Amino acid sequence: MKYNNINLKITCDGGAATGKTTGAKLIAKKYDLAFLSSGLLYRYAGYLILKYQPKNKLKFLAKKFEKLNYKKLNKINLHTPKISNYSAIIAKNLGVRNILKIYQKKFINKNKGCVLEGRDASTKILPSSDVKFFFICNLNIAAKRRFMELKKLNSNINELEVKKALKLRNILDKKRKHSPLKRHKNAVVVNTGKLNKQAMVVKMSKSVEKILRTKYGN
Hints:
The protein is α/β, with parallel strands linked by helices. It has helices at 20-30, 38-52, 57-66, 81-90, 94-110, 121-125, 139-151, 159-175, 197-216; strands at 9-14, 34-37, 114-118, 131-136, 188-191.
């Protein structure tokens, strides 16, 4: 079944290194949908604060995100342990969350067909999304994957430290006061510890195709 310029909004949530970014990107590419990672936005916010040390963090971030070109974020290394730890800390700040929420809402309004990936995409940012996915993965498998990714950037990275960092990040995300990580009641669970990329896309596509048939018919 082929669709062009479809009006479809998909949200993908999950813990650290569960494969949600990969899954979201692949499904966005398959159905030609715009893609946005909220996690990358938080990493960028953390990167900016660590780099410039602004006196008024919220005013500084609001100005930076007002004119942000999302595509440029891929040119910056935002996946260092320092940025990962700090982005988890600022993600608890309601003021920061509101600034990034405004950016995400603008993205959603601009793109009628889109995939939004993060930790509260289905529960807070876009609860009206047509299809919702929640990614899970065994911590050992997730840590191994993240370790292999980070090792390409830093050969001195320690796998045990990566595992500890992932575990801590998930705890912080689940227990934070504002927009904690949790599964939406209508979300389809995608266990990437048991699925390779191809199987993951097949599983996700079944849910997407079901909605598209409802919207556009056979």
